[in-house]
Amino acid sequence: MNHDYSGNTQLWNEDLAPTTAAQRTWRWYHFAALWVGMVMCIPAYTLSASLIDSGMSGYQAVLTVFLANAIVLLPMLLIGHAGTKYGIPYAVLARASFGTMGARLPALMRAIVACGWYGIQTWFGGQMIYTLMGVLMGHELGGEKIAGLGINGSQLLCFLAFWAIQFYYILHGMESIRKLETYTAPLKILICFVLLYWVHSKAGGVASLLDQPSQFIPGGKKAGQFWSVFWPSLTAMVGFWATLALNIPDFTRFARTQRDQVIGQSIGLPVPMGLLAMLAVIVTAGSVVMYGKAIWDPVDLASRMTGAAVLIALIILLIDTVSVNLAANLVGPAYDFSSLAPKQISYKMGGYITAFIAIVMMPWKVLESTQGYIFTWLIGYSALLGPIAGILIVDYYFVRKTQLDVRQLYRDDGVYSYGSGWNMAALIAFVIAVLPNIPGFLNAAFPAAFPDVAAGFKTIYTYAWFVGVAIAAVVYGIMMKGKVTARVQQAPQS
Predict the structure, then answer these.
(1) Who is most buried in 8, 46, 147, 304, counting CB within 10 A?
(2) For position 92, which CATH number holds?
């Protein structure tokens, strides 16, 4: 029963407690719908479409996306196992490797990244309202840009309006999000067909669009540069879901069985993401035919439709963005912020904090260019989250053989308190794994200030997530080798 874990209110509250049998309502199709709902989103579409902008052919872009999502599915399933077995969220699982106090570091890192994503999705939603209002009024809202913000007053109001809409689901918790994901998944598929039909009618067919050659072929604009684009793009694609790979226990803790989470995620992630990439590629290639340039923002594209089509497309995209943002970018940080101070911060309060930080981060500035989106944002945070994934996986599977003493995870004087609540092995492994990526990140984020970074560091940075996972896993495994784990006790699930 949950009250067995409530001795320390600085490590426990009702939201962080292991789930009971009554709370385990998620079947495989709920996980599949969750992933279909999250995959069919504007940032995923935008990222896939931007591969065409970077010079790839349609087939190269689709295969890059599919491969990346097949790769990231592995840590999803591995880390998700702990959530289902013990009913604990990511922020509590991290205590086993980082310590009861140290776990706040990976929780905070995951939370800040999610706040950024929450802001990006909210910006997309606000832009849809902005576009929709312009269509209804017959002209773009426009206006002078606000000094320091770089957007006009109408854009700011639409951003805040969409931000406010999402508060209903913060108030009504996880079950309302599960229902929203399940019921809106078919709408996501519908909008895909709407876009395909529109491109087919405007560009004169879609079959030939996938056959457009890449710019890397001999004589092309970027001849011989394929691998220099492929590897950072693959890392960015992996980084796109790197946040969910960490906090997937926040969802799998509600699974009825391990089979449900494994089958649901395996069906719901790689294939739909590959299909969305194909859609993005076809539509973006079609935009080149129709407008003479690649339009990789679906909101911009939808605004160019005419008649009822633009209204239908934008309304469905609005619903889509709400469902994705809540599942992918609210649930995790809400738990993470709660774990920082369980007595003072509930899951709902964590949601409020997430929503507030999303405004302060000014997400529209992150999205000003493809370069900033892929190389600075996606790869940059994958360099931080990769090491955490490596540590969690090695600790759970190789150090503890999937055995945890759940009650000790909620005690500040238990086996997971290490030295003053910090496991130095995890902290050292994390720092060592992040260090090689710092020069490359500084060069990508601030090229004018750090122009002379060695080519080797730039190369390492293009593999940021992979480098981080590998180094952290090896260092942590060596430092923890031979350390005897305490007796284990599985969490009761009723």
Answers:
(1) 46
(2) 1.10.4160.10
